[in-house]
Amino acid sequence: MITLYLFPKIFPKTPFLSLFLVFLISLQASFLSYYIEFFVFYRFALKKKLYICTIITNYNNFIMGIKMNFKSQLCAAILTLGCSCLSANAMVANDAAKENKAQHYQPSAENLESRKQFQDDKFGIFLHWGLYSMLATGEWTMTNKDLNYKEYAKLAGGFYPSKFDAAKWVAAIKASGAKYICFTTRHHEGFSMFKTKYSDYNIVDATPFRRDIVKELADECHKQGIALHLYYSHIDWYREDAVWGRTGRGTGRPNPKGNWKSYYQFMNNQLTELLTNYGKVRCIWFDGWWDQDQNPNFDWQLPEQYALIHRLQPGCLIVNNHHSSPFEGEDVQAFERDLPGENKAGLSGQDISRLPLETCETMNGMWGYKITDQDYKSTKTLVHYLVNAAGKNANLLMNIGPQPDGELPAVALERLAEMGEWMKTYGETIYGTRGGIVAPHDWGVTTQKGNRLFVHILNLKDKSLFLPLGNKKVKKAFDFVSKKPVKVQKCEGGVLLNLGEVPTEMDKVVEIAL
Predict the structure, then answer these.
(1) Beta-strand pair 357-362/333-336
(2) How far apart are CA 282 and CA 218, in angstroms?
(3) Given this model, what pLDDT does residue 35 score?
(4) Which residues, other chains included, contact 332 with Cβ-Cβ below 8 Å and sequence gap of 6+?
(5) pTM for the whole thing?
(6) Which of these, 483, 380, 485, 395, lies nearest to 431 by C-alpha position?
(7) What region, left, alpha or beta, does residue 456 occupy, with left being phi > 0 and alpha being psi -120 to 50 degrees?
(8) Which of 370, 360, 442, 440 has its CA nearest to residue 401?
(9) Eight-class DSSP state of 474
């Protein structure tokens, strides 16, 4: 069996030669050869963890070898050959399984195209809406106040958002310059905002409204040319089969261990519905992985779930807001309340990957509707956030929490309209761009399309601006809006833009032709 040393290298290429060598060596008759063969093979078997049938066969050969006549040795050789075939096949199968497991996710052509479109779009609107809007205290009220899950579910009986109009929502969002909508199909509270046959706890079966919100919104997105992204929570504070994490522990559910197999199947069933019944979905946006961060051995079985999504819609992107570096099978890296590379909110300290990037942020302070939170960010702040995101090669997903009556808050609509006006002028410097060759600075950022470099000056207290372009040649520079030339002075390490006066615009953009 010394020949088995060569199996990992020669067996896949020359199986017949390998097995023939095994057969010949098995005919050895001397005690010394059996002695050497047994101990060499025994060490090999321990190292490679070969199967017991081969070990037993060779052990028997070792004990009986010196007593065997040629006929007996021939029989033993044939037996050894058979067992070696089994072991070899097992080795090859085991290696193939390991190789299969190690294979990396390969996105489809449709998926790669979706990634490009996603990066080109740059701006989307997040909509957090569910039963929690009725309490008007934010989307985490159920766990923050330890509300009993059976009592909380009674909210559904009074949920009737009579003013909901999907066409108006989508039109207002489209007018803002946003290119996609991400809607919470099911948040941590466990209530489904779509018709599902896997739970009665949904907008159609549990409320007097009896209309499929996701269906109406999806239809309008497809009609008005807005890409549809669907948020889906990995955790559930309502379902009894959902395994407890660090949140939702006080909602009165009876079994902390839940029933993972049942809950996992439920999630996959709902994901199948979402990716089958609502037309093209460009992205599934997961949230809640972090709920088990105190249980590092917990297996969310993400690879199988990701494979299901990519099988149902190959072009569908997967985002997971797990606050970590991307996992295998994901298509976009998410950042929460911070731009890539920043960690002011304490949720985004992860390394920046080469995947498309997206940062989500609230328009006021909460994700879900909160009646006392009227601290909306100014239009200037929102525009700067969008520009800074683009300069860091990321998209901005700006959140709005719809009211319980089905309308978007008036202030949010104002901000959407004002951003839309800005985008009418400056959209060309955002859409279809990537982060520019000049890294972000305190004064602003750059975006770029080919040889067109857009210098976004957001905070400059001087009349001139140095750009570290190295040996890059500047053909011309001009104000993006007025098209007036901007003087360029070549200097060591780059160029100096002479602006003539200190910029006072919300975002002064200078275009440079390289």
Answers:
(1) parallel
(2) 11
(3) 39
(4) 115, 118, 283, 317, 318, 319, 355, 356, 357, 358
(5) 0.82
(6) 395
(7) beta
(8) 370
(9) P
Closest CA to 203 of 161, 168, 232, 235: 161
Task: Give the per-residue pLDDT at 93.
Answer: 43
**CA-based nearest residue to 160, from 222, 210, 85:** 210
Residue 79 confidence (pLDDT)? 44
Question: What confidence score (pLDDT) does residue 103 get?
Answer: 59
Cα 158 from chain centre: 35
Within 10 A of 393 (CB to CB), how many other CB atoms are there? 20
Q: Which tokens go with 7?
A: 């199996």
Q: Give the closest residue to 188 by CA, choosing from 143, 250, 137.
A: 143
Query: Looking at the DSSP assignment, which residues form a beta bridge with residue 283?
Result: 229, 317
- Say if CB 368 and CB 133 are below 8 A apart: yes
Q: Which residues, at least 6 apart from 435, have a Cβ–Cβ distance to it below 8 Å? A: 390, 391, 392, 393, 445, 446, 447, 448
Is there a contact between 91 and 47 (Cβ–Cβ < 8 Å)?
no
Residue 33 has what pLDDT?
A: 44
Strands (E), 81-151: 123-127
**What's the CA gap between 358 and 64, in Å, rounded?**
70
Which tokens go with 271?
Answer: 């994901």
In angstroms and rounded to an integer, the radius of gyration of the C-alpha atoms of the chain is 31
The answer to whether 198 and 254 are in contact (CB under 8 A) is no
The three-state secondary structure class of 160 is coil
Residue 160 near residue 207 (C-beta atoms within 8 A): yes
Note the pLDDT of residue 392. Answer: 98
Q: Taking the CB of residue 366, how many other CB atoms lie within 10 A of it?
A: 20
pLDDT along the chain (514 residues), means of 10: 41 44 44 41 40 40 43 48 46 42 82 98 98 98 98 98 98 98 98 98 98 98 98 98 98 98 98 98 98 96 98 98 97 98 94 97 98 98 98 98 98 98 98 98 98 98 97 96 97 96 97 98
Cβ-contact 430, 386 below 8 angstroms: yes
Contacts of 71 (CB under 8 A, 6+ apart): none
Q: Identify whether the C-beta of residue 406 lies closer than 8 Å to the C-beta of residue 163.
A: yes
DSSP conformation class of 408: P
Q: Could you tell me which residues are beta bridge partners of residue 476?
A: 513
Residue with tokens 């106040």: 145
Q: What is the pLDDT of residue 42?
A: 39
Tell me how far apart the terminal alpha carbons of the chain are, to the nearest angstrom: 68
DSSP-assigned letter for residue 502: -
